[in-house]
Amino acid sequence: MSANEAVTESVETNESKESLTALDRCDICGAQAYIRVELATGELLFCSHHGNEKKAKLEPIAKSWLDESDKLLSR
Ligand SMILES: [Zn+2]
Q1: Could you say which of 10, 25, 38, 48 would form a disulfide bridge with 63 (CB–CB 3.0 to 4.6 Å)?
Q2: Ligand 1 centre and the CA of 1: distance in Å?
Q3: Is 4 inside any structural domain?
Q4: pLDDT digits (tens, 9 = 90+) for 11-61
Q5: Residue 14 forms part of a structural domain
Q6: Which residues surround ligand 1, an ion (CB under 5 A)?
Q7: pLDDT the model gives residue 2
């Protein structure tokens, strides 16, 4: 245990409704979605590839940006 390990992400918000499932699909290619973007006009889902592709353009106007692509790495 070192003090450096304090950089653990504490994203425990219990908002399960925000969590993406295997049923959520990328709006562009139909792959499993890992990124949910909430816009004033509605909601978009992206796989990590297209999410990252659109991020620069959409993130500034998004009401929220949920990126669960780290789930990709953990399985
Ligand atoms: Zn995609």
Answers
A1: 38
A2: 39
A3: no
A4: 454 445 668 999 999 999 999 999 999 999 999 999 999 999 999 999 999
A5: no
A6: 26, 28-29, 31, 47, 50
A7: 53
Compute, in angstroms, the gap from residue 5 CA to the centroid of ligand 1: 34
What pLDDT score does 42 carry? Answer: 96
Question: How far is the C-alpha of 60 from the C-alpha of 74, rounded, in Å?
Answer: 28
How many angstroms separate the alpha carbon of residue 13 from the centre of ligand 1?
26
Residue 67 belongs to domain spanning: 21-73
Asked, for residue 41, whether it belongs to a domain, the answer is yes
Q: 8 alpha carbon to ligand 1 midpoint, in Å?
A: 29
How many folded domains does the chain comprise? 1
Residue 64 class from Cβ within 10 Å (0-12 exposed, 13-18 middle, 19+ buried)?
A: exposed
